Amino acid sequence: MSELSINPLDDPLAIAEAWRKAGRNVALATVVETWGSAPRPVGSHLVIDADGNFEGSVSGGCVEGAVIAEAVDVIGSGEPRTLEFGVADETAWRVGLSCGGRIKVFVEKVD
C-alpha cells in the first residue's frame, strides 16, 4: 500500500502527514467550537492540499467549500486563521449553514 493509499476513515492527522511526506503542501482545519445544531463535534478535522483536494469533514458539507478555499490561502500565506460560521452571521446563508447553530474552525498549515 502506498503512502497515498490511505483509508479516509483513518486518522486525519495521519493523512496530513502522508500527504506532506509525499511533497504536497497541506493545511489542517479543526472544529474548535460549536453551538446548537452543528453537524460535527469539536475536534473534527478536514485535511486540504494546495490543489483543493481534501479528506475528512468539519460540517457535513455545510461549510466545507468555504473552509477549503480559506485553507488553500493559508497554505500560500502560512498564516493560520479562525473561521466562524452561523445563522446569525451573514455568511451563513452563502455557505449553507442554515440548519442552525454556529461553528468555529481553526485552519493552519502543516509543516
From TrEMBL:
Domain of life: Bacteria
Domain XdhC- CoxI per the UniProt entry, residue ranges: 19-86
Record-linked Pfam families: XdhC_CoxI (PF02625)
Coiled coil feature spans: none
Identification of the protein by name: XdhC family protein
Taxonomic source organism: Microbaculum marinisediminis
